[in-house]
Amino acid sequence: MAFAPLDMLQQSSLASLDAADSSPSSTPCRTILVTGGAGFIGTNFVYYWVKHHPGDRLIVLDALTYAGCRHNLSPLEENASITFAHGNICDRPLVEKLLASENVDTLIHFAAESHVDRSIAAPDAFIRTNVVGTYTVLDAFRHHWNHRGQPAGDRFVHISTDEVYGSLSLTDPPFTETTAYAPNSPYSASKAGGDHLVRAYFKTYNLPTLITNCSNNYGPYQYPEKLIPLMTMNGLHGKPLPVYGDGRNVRDWIYVEDHCRAIDSILNKGKPGEAYNIGGETEIANIDLVRLICKHLDEMAIALPVRPVEQLITFVEDRPGHDFRYAMDATKLRTTTGWRPLYSFEHGLRETIQWYVDHSNWWKRLSEIKTDV
Ligand code: NAD
Q: What is the mean pLDDT of residues 224-249?
């Protein structure tokens, strides 16, 4: 992988839309700009893509905020078909230069500020990155697509969240793609703003955009402020396990690799202008999930300062505007592409906890670990 300062980026001759097909899913080779590729889902996506589409070229653009880790992609350093560019999606000249110099045909937009609690404490970065940044890459891609002669196979895929739909009660049916947007946090409102811009660019300019709305992801490389890595790390260190309110809030969980496979299916089989829900079919109350993490940690043959870990559970004041329940109806994705989640929650969760136990070097390297409230 080349770690390229902007002025060293060179024209790539490795891939073109009509290049020979070498990918397992029989799709044409692509040159993909991946924003936010050093974050949690972005990192997993890059590994997934290299494995399943070895003929494609990837350009990773990431600002390396607290949530982005350059070392995540170190094992790919020797891979000549990946370039890493350190920069901000709000930097229009940089985005334009990357699109043009690499002759990008596909943009997968992960880059975002992603933590709800941080959005409540300080919303400004969320508006800048999730709204203005999304506008910047979207509009730069539109001009680039026009310049390329509007090829039919080009795609802009915007990665979004179930949180844009707001909150459900226990008896409500799951969100569908026609559920009205009702975001309740600065994070979800900023993501909704990005979604609306992407939709508008299809309606107004016919830009071939797709939107994905996914439920809570879990897996390796997730910054330990999110529930599963936070509880795992605190359990490992004998620190309190902070649970908001009474812990009855319900989330749907999906293993990150299943999400990456869904994006692959949507990129190659989805219809431009459409949005697709992605869900893991695993609804669980936060408190039940935390107890499950405690059980897994207890069962692992590792030194723990406190055992059983469940003693560490501490209920804390609820998050303001805390959505009660998210649930996704992914029927449209299933029927359009044949995708379905392959990981069982039990298996994926155990693997994930084991990954954090085995990768203490990874989380020790992170500059700003928040392991308590
Ligand atoms: P993350 O916070 O782990 O990673 C975000 C990445 O974006 C980081 O590498 C960060 O450095 C980069 N970034 C932030 N601001 C940037 C900017 N201005 N310019 C360039 N790079 C910037 O987030 P994640 O959990 O991997 O989420 C990725 C995407 O998926 C986000 O758009 C998020 O809204 C969406 N999503 C996440 C989940 C989830 O459960 N994590 C669920 C559904 C959708």
A: 97
| Number of neighbouring beta carbons within 10 Å of residue 302 | 12
The Cα 363–Cα 373 span in angstroms is 18
Whether residue 21 lies in the annotated active site:
no
Distance CA(370)–CA(349), nearest Å, equals 21
- To the nearest 10 degrees (0 to 180), the angle between helices 286-299 and 345-358 is 60
313 lines ligand 1 (CB under 6 A): no
Total length of the chain: 373
Summarised one tens digit per residue, pLDDT across range 325-344 is: 999 999 999 999 999 999 99
Single-letter code of the amino acid located at 179: T
Question: From ligand 1's centre to the CA of 286, what distance in Å?
Answer: 22
Counting Cβ atoms within 10 Å, is residue 335 exposed (0-12), middle (13-18) or buried (19+)?
A: exposed
pLDDT tens per residue across span 115-137? 999 999 999 999 999 999 999 99
Looking at the DSSP bridge assignments, the partners of residue 196 are none
The pTM is what? Answer: 0.93
